[in-house]
Each structure stands twice: as structure tokens, then as C-alpha cells.
């Protein structure tokens, strides 16, 4: 009666209501029922033939300890790293493995180019037996009989430098020039090395200090005289001497007497400063450095002798007209500071900071001309040098009071440099008239530009951004801008659009008041007056005095390129020493080689780490 179950099992028939449902179902369309049964059988058969449906795959995870991540994500990250290494890392490794030349320092700026030339001027000014590598082909041996009348000087006074366009050796400005060069090397030795002039600058200093050691008995501890000059020149004279004759140094045939002085607090102080500063420059040569510092101590002692404190130029007409010294208290302060840095002997710093010294020197009197650094006024340089001690070491009591005074005076001096405060006049072209429009203005410009640049570097070395000039805050960049403006004027940024450094730029002086540059090097030895033809000719100098900075233009920016205008067209040792110092201070060349602004430690290598209290001055001490 019931259809069979093809897949096993039984169909159970429920009673009651189930029967009513069954009887209703019996009335359905049998065709539809047949199709439904076949469909159900097909699904059943398929599940039997194909097996159970496939189970859904589960994601696999990796436990990294601090986090659990999908394995797929981990593999994806790994292959990204591999791809990045191949596409980025591998080319970098290969590129770095290929040898490359190290990048050189930046190209030299105009200040470095001028520096190279300015140093060569000293080679052209050398007296004595010249080295083969002197580098000035038109110069030769000269002055080999100098000092022959100084019987107490073994070998005479051969060597040193001629002062300017004549052939006199003035020891006062020569010593100052060596001090300036040494100071610049001490502060900027790294820059000198970076631009390839370190050895050259040291050789020039040694040429000068070797000679200065001959000007007194440097092997003794006590001396009673010092030689101040070789060669003389009478004003409007009619006898052969260093001004009456116009000769190359190699052709000199006239008398060149020496001048010795038994009282020279100024000259002795300046020579002591030069030797002391150079002893720091040559610390790598212990024997020579010791010789210099011992000589400096001897001549400093001579300069301080009681009863011998009249200026070296007093009643000396052959000196007074050219390099008259107006005071010696500034040299006392200047040389004492250098002696302290060179030796570390606290008696020198005690003397330099004794309140009576700045009082006698009128260092704090706010006198305008005393703020101008020059061969005759060392006060601004001495005050900056002593400010350095306070800024970098700050020794405290009992030196602090005077050091604060020197520091304040230095800041005030710097304020006076700026045109806005109208302390000094400036030409319309921008040149500072530190000597009030007199001859040789540029030597004052460069010396004070050096101090401005150096003070800016001192402040930056101790992280001080500037200082106040009254209510006006001035920055270190303001100081450098002043120094740059003055150097730019000298190098061609002036109304005449000419350089006042020979050989720099396209337009520069061609008719120097200089015997060696104006007289041909042609094998002819011209007589005393036979050289006049070369003095008076309108032709340009046959010998290029490379690097010579001339005196400079007048207060109206006017300049006459003539040998007769010696106030404008004559170069000097002092002028070029200041130029070299200012150029190396302001140049940016060498900074790519890791050059720092100033070498803070070189100056202090002899300074004791502790500053004991200064002993009271002896009863005989009279400043």
C-alpha cells in the first residue's frame, strides 16, 4: 500500500491530525508530487555521490609574543621588505661601495684671494740675505752691512723688514706689525691652514722676530739699551740718505747709521709684546718659543726700569718726525697682557689689572682718539686682549674689577665704529676717517676692522649675540658688516671703483711711492740721484709690488696715483699687517673644512688653571 523507501529506514504514519493531513494530501496533483520527489532524490543522490560539502578554511595566525598576526600578513610584510631592499637599499650599497673623491673646501672668497696677495708684500719688504724661495724675482740680498757701526751686536743688524717705500728699518712699527701677525695666527690658525698660508705666515713672523732678538742682548737678563732704527732721513736734506736717494735696496751705497736708545718704555714694551705673542705661535718649537719668551722678559724688564721712562722718540729728530710715540702706558698694558698669555706668570696680569695702570693710561677717560687702534695707540687692542681673559676664563677676584672696566671700554669702542652714532666721520663712499682725514687712512681702517671682527667672534664663542650701545642693541653681525664694508671699500667697492691693494682686481695703483717697485730690475746699478728718473717717470711701475695696500684716498674719496703723493700711494708694514689680520678674520674660506671662528685654547696653554690672589705690589712699585 505504501511506496517503498529506496534509501532505507521507514516512513512512520502519525495518527489523529496527521491522518487528516494525509487524506488532504492525497487530493494533490500526483504529477506535481512526482516531480517534487524526483528533485529531492536528485539532491540526496548528489550528496551521497559527492560526499559532504567542503568545510570553510580557517585563517592561520602567528604569535609574535606581544601581538598575534595573520600568517598571510606576515608574509606580505616580509616580501615588501625584500622588495624595498632590492629596489632601494641595494643601489645605495653599490653606490657607496664605489670610491668617490672627498668634496673639497668651498672656493675662496675675495677676502682670501686678497689675503694671499697681502702676505706676499712682506716677502718684498725683506732685508738681508733672502731665501731662495722668497718668491719675488726682482728682489735680492740687501742691507748686508746694516749695524756694522753697532760693535756690541754680533753679526750686525742684518735682516728684518724695510718699513715702507724707503729703505729705513723702524723697529717700533716693525715690532707692532709682528705682534699683529702673531695675534691673527693665534686666533685663526685653522683658517690659515685651510687656505694654505699657515707656514707662510709663520715664516714671515720668524723673519721679523729673529731680527728683533738682535736689537738688544736677548741672552742677558738685564740690558741698558736697545737699537731703535737702522737708516736715517733728514727732512729736506741734501746729503745721501734713505730719503734723499732713490735706490733699490740692493743698490744702496750711502751711510745707514744705527740709532740706540737707553730709555724706551714704549719701544721696549712693543718688542716684548711681539716676542711674547710669537712665542705662542711657535709653541710647537719648544726651544725657539723659550728663546722668544726669555727675550721678551728681558726687554719688558728694560721697558719698566725706573729712571728710564721717557719715550724712545723724545729728542730723536730722525725718529720723531716719522714714528713719534705719544705715550708708553698703552704699551705697558699691551705688553703685560701678552707676557701673561705667553708665560702664565701672574705678576704680569697683576700689573695689567692694577687700577693705577688704566688710570695713567687714561683708558677709561672716554677720549675719542684713544678708541682708535694703531701703532701709536695700543689701548683698544690691550683692552680687547684683556676682555678675552674675562670672557673665556673669568678669573674673578682680584682681577675682576679692572677686567670689567676693560670689557666695558671695549664695548664702547665698538659702538664708536658705527656711522649711526656719529663718533667718527665717514667719506661719502663709506670709508671711516679714524685719523680725521690725514694721510695713510687705510692702515687705521684695517686695524680697527680686525678688532671688530675679532670681538664678534669672541662674543659668538661664548654664545653672546651682541651688546648695547645705549638703548640700541647691536649684534655680532652688525660688527662684521662694519668690517666687511671697510674691506669691501679697500677692495674696490668705492666711488673710484678701484682696488687699493696692488694686484687685486683689474684696477689698482700703478705708480707707488716705493723705490724697489719703481726702479727696473735690469742689471743696472743706479746712483743715489740716478734713480730720480724712475721716481719722476709717468710710466707704471716695472715691478709689481703684489699685495701692497697703499695709504688710501682723502676725505673726499679722491685718490691720485702718483709717486709724489706718498700719503696716499705709499704702502707700509703696519698697513699690510692690519690688512692681513682683518682679511683672515672676516673670510669664510676654510669653514667647509671644519674651521672654528677663533681658537679659544691656544692663548691659554701657559695660563695656570687656578688664579691665586695677586700679591700686594712692592713699596718701590710706581706705575
Global outline: globular
How many helix segments? 21
Number of strands: 7
Average pLDDT level: 87
Low-pLDDT residue intervals, each spanning 5 or more residues: 1-41, 43-51, 592-596, 610-623
Largest sheet: 3 strands, antiparallel
Class of secondary structure makeup: mainly alpha
Evaluate the radius of gyration: 44 Å
**Main sheet: strand order:** 3-4-5
Active site: 513, 561, 570
GO molecular function: cellulase activity
Pfam family, one: Glyco_hydro_9
InterPro entries: 6-hairpin_glycosidase_sf, 6hp_glycosidase-like_sf, Glyco_hydro_9, Glyco_hydro_9_Asp/Glu_AS, Glyco_hydro_9_His_AS
Describe the structure.
By secondary structure, the protein is mostly helical. The protein has 21 helices and seven strands. It has a three-stranded antiparallel sheet with strand order 3-4-5. Strands 1-2 form a two-stranded antiparallel sheet. A two-stranded antiparallel sheet has the order 6-7. α4 runs antiparallel to α21 (573-586). The chain is globular and about 115 Å long. The termini are far apart. The model is unreliable at 1-41, 43-51, 592-596 and 610-623 (pLDDT under 50). This is Endoglucanase. The chain crosses the membrane at residues 73-94. Belongs to the glycosyl hydrolase 9 (cellulase E) family. Keywords: Carbohydrate metabolism, Cellulose degradation, Glycosidase, Hydrolase, Membrane, Polysaccharide degradation, Transmembrane, Transmembrane helix.
Amino acid at each position: 500500500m505504501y511506496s517503498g523507501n529506496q534509501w532505507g529506514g521507514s516512513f512512520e504514519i502519525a495518527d489523529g491530525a496527521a491522518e487528516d493531513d494525509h487524506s488532504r494530501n492525497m487530493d494533490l496533483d500526483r504529477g506535481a508530487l512526482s516531480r517534487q520527489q524526483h528533485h529531492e532524490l536528485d539532491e540526496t543522490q548528489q550528496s551521497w555521490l559527492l560526499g559532504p560539502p567542503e568545510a570553510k578554511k580557517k585563517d592561520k595566525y602567528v604569535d609574535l609574543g606581544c601581538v598575534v598576526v595573520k600568517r598571510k600578513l606576515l608574509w606580505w610584510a616580509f616580501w615588501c621588505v625584500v622588495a624595498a631592499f632590492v629596489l632601494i637599499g641595494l643601489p645605495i650599497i653599490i653606490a657607496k661601495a664605489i670610491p668617490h673623491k672627498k668634496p673639497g673646501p668651498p672656493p675662496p672668497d675675495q677676502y682670501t684671494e686678497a689675503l694671499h696677495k697681502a702676505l706676499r708684500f712682506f716677502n718684498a719688504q725683506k732685508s738681508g740675505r733672502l731665501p731662495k724661495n722668497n718668491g719675488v724675482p726682482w728682489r735680492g740680498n740687501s742691507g748686508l752691512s746694516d749695524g756694522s757701526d753697532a760693535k756690541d751686536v754680533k753679526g750686525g743688524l742684518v735682516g728684518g723688514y724695510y718699513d715702507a717705500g724707503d729703505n729705513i728699518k723702524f723697529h717700533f712699527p716693525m715690532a707692532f706689525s709682528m705682534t699683529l701677525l702673531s695675534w691673527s695666527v693665534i686666533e685663526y690658525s685653522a683658517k690659515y691652514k685651510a687656505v694654505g698660508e699657515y707656514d707662510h705666515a709663520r715664516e714671515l713672523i720668524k723673519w721679523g722676530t729673529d731680527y728683533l732678538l738682535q736689537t738688544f742682548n736677548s741672552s742677558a737678563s738685564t740690558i741698558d739699551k736697545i737699537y731703535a732704527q737702522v737708516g736715517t732721513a733728514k727732512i729736506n736734506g741734501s746729503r745721501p740718505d734713505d730719503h734723499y736717494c732713490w735706490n733699490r735696496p740692493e743698490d744702496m751705497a750711502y751711510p745707514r747709521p744705527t740709532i740706540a736708545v737707553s730709555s724706551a718704555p714704549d719701544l721696549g714694551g712693543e718688542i716684548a709684546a711681539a716676542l711674547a705673542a710669537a712665542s705662542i705661535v711657535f709653541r710647537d718649537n719648544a726651544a725657539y718659543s723659550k728663546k722668544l719668551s726669555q727675550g721678551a722678559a728681558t726687554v719688558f724688564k728694560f721697558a719698566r726700569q725706573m729712571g728710564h721712562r721717557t719715550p724712545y722718540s723724545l729728542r730723536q729728530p730722525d725718529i720723531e718726525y716719522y714714528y713719534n710715540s705719544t705715550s708708553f702706558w698703552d704699551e705697558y698694558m699691551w705688553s703685560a697682557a701678552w707676557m701673561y698669555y705667553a708665560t702664565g706668570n701672574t705678576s704680569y696680569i697683576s700689573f695689567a689689572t692694577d687700577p693705577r695702570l688704566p688710570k695713567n693710561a687714561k683708558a677709561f677717560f672716554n677720549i675719542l682718539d684713544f678708541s682708535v687702534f694703531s701703532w701709536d695707540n695700543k689701548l683698544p687692542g690691550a683692552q680687547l686682549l684683556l676682555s678675552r681673559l674675562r670672557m673665556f676664563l673669568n678669573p674673578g677676584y682680584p682681577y675682576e674689577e679692572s677686567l670689567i672696566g676693560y670689557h666695558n671700554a671695549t664695548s664702547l669702542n665698538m659702538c664708536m665704529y658705527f656711522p649711526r652714532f656719529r663718533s667718527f666721520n665717514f667719506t661719502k663712499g663709506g670709508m671711516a676717517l679714524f685719523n680725521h682725514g690725514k694721510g695713510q687712512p687705510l692702515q687705521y681702517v684695517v686695524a680697527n676692522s680686525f678688532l671688530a671682527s675679532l670681538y664678534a667672534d669672541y662674543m659668538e664663542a661664548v654664545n653672546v649675540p651682541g651688546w648695547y650701545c645705549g638703548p640700541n642693541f647691536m649684534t655680532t653681525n652688525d660688527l662684521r658688516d662694519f668690517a666687511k664694508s671697510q674691506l669691501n671699500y679697500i677692495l674696490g667697492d668705492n666711488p673710484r671703483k678701484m682696488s687699493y691693494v696692488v694686484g687685486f682686481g683689474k684696477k689698482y695703483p700703478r705708480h707707488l711711492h716705493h723705490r724697489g717697485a719703481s726702479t727696473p730690475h735690469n742689471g743696472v746699478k743706479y746712483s743715489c740721484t740716478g734713480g730720480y728718473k724712475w721716481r719722476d717717470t709717468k710710466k707704471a711701475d716695472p715691478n709689481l709690488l703684489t699685495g701692497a695696500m697703499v695709504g688710501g684716498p682723502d676725505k673726499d674719496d679722491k685718490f691720485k696715483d702718483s709717486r709724489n703723493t706718498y700719503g696716499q700711494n705709499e704702502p707700509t708694514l703696519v698697513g699690510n699687517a692690519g690688512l692681513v689680520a682683518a682679511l683672515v678674520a672676516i673670510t669664510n674660506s676654510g669653514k667647509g673644512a671644519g674651521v672654528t671662528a677663533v681658537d679659544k685654547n691656544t692663548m691659554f696653554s701657559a695660563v695656570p688653571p687656578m688664579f691665586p690672589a695677586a700679591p700686594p705690589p712692592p713699596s718701590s712699585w710706581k706705575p
